[in-house]
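Two proteins follow. First one:
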Amino acid sequence: MTYEEPYFSSGARNPDGKIAQFFDHTDLMANKHGLYFDIYSIKSQVHVAFKAFLDTFVDNFEMKTEQKQYVNSQHIDIKQGGVLRKLDIGFSVPSGNIIQAKQHMQNLNLLVKSLYAVANEKNLPSSVGAPRYRIRFLNLMADSETPTKLSGKGSAKSSGLEGYIEGLTYEFDMDAGFMTDPTELGFVYPKLIKVNFSYYPVTDTNPMWKKTTEKDENGKIIDGYKFTLGSFPYAHKGFGSGKGAPGASDSGATTRKINEQNQARMKKLLGRQ
């Protein structure tokens, strides 16, 4: 079975076997525009998807630094040790009918199970690293090593942002209440669930500026710098030249080329060109 992009449909059979007469326009929006969080567990191969009723999206870049003070000097040197990226994600999972409520409960159960280790050959929890994931959310969470031809939507397995989940929490909204199935005594399903977690992205390629050479407009070879990840931290198409803005995006471009594009756009905006 091949993995495909998520597809949302609230049309299903009720417990009594009759077709549910229910239409949710958010299904159409999610399918057409890719408005969903698609989550794929690399080790357990669990995959779940939720429509993107986004509550929180905070991207943190914490610089790890080391301070050093020399003898007989008041000056303190700061040495950079790296950059730790952490995404704080929060979204709501509302249910419009009992069918949706059951689907959401099943997906949330699977997401929790995916946090646990995969067994090794001795049927013991594997101790080789924490479970890794790929998550796809439009162009804001996508593979940083994928070219910017990346589609605005897609599957987590093929084009998701790889990383680790930490601090997964669910909150059942008590004001919204619960749904019940008349054929299932003693079972309740939340109408609204708040999901929150932190995500630590990782890449195979080191994010950094590499020195390179290029030719200027006169054919002279000059030094420049190019970032190793073109679609970082978010995939984007840049500025299309067909709309009066010269240049494309900063993906794969050197700092000199990026600066030239920015200056050209600024001159055009100021009417100097």
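Second one, unrelated to the first:
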Amino acid sequence: MISGKEFINQKNKRITLLGMSGVGKTRLAKLIGEGGEWFHFSGDYRIGAAHLKDEIIANIADKMKADSWLKTLLDNSSISINSQVTFDNLEPIAAFLGKVGNPEKEGLPFDEFVRRQRLFFEAEKKTMYEVPSFIAKSQAEGFSHFINDAGGSLCELEDPKLFKLLSENTLVVYIKTNKENERALIERAKRKPKPVYYNPVFFENSIKAYLAENSLEYAAQINPDAFVSWVFPKLIEDRLVKYSALASKYGCTIKSDDLHNCRSANDVLNLISNALS
């Protein structure tokens, strides 16, 4: 592990961000990238724009074909579909992932939900293995530094070879939430439940517990939004342990409230440097 001084003096800094969605990873990436010297690699963007693009478009097409007129236009190639994924608009990915539960409440059948989860898992792993090649690409394009803005589910990949690769090529920086941040994330999930990737074992255990707790017999009876609201606090608790373990082994930890007080790229870099000291 490098020291804080060594990090500050690095000619070519490379960082991988680790933490829950909404904790401030993208804000950090944009803050230090304001000078134009940093290549911002968004894991979720890469997943949606490359590795899951065809599946996302197929999902949109299936939805549109519920309308007979649109189906006719699609079938005779009168119209085409494209997915506009951007760093700030990841809705097409969320729409593809979906939520498990009652189809009458826009839920996905259990088997289809699991299939999409598996596709996302494979896409995220493939994306993270691309980090070294994108570092080389960024240098060829004249960028001095590189930041890997990884998704909140990076900790779920459970691939020691991958984490070793990331730690050899980047400094892993975990943004740790405080209790207030955690409550805010949970409240946001309750107000507007969003699709999310789950570790398969965690998901299976959570489904069984939810069905038992609500006296339901099968997944198709689940209210999709209610399940996400119920499971999200448990997901945070489960992931926090994994984040801490990864940061201890491969990188360093900064606090989200300290990050919130940063106003410039230098503030962020000094915060990381202090975490390494």
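SUMMARY FIELD: Strands lie at 14-18, 38-42, 145-149, 171-176, 251-255. The first helix runs from residue 4 to 9.
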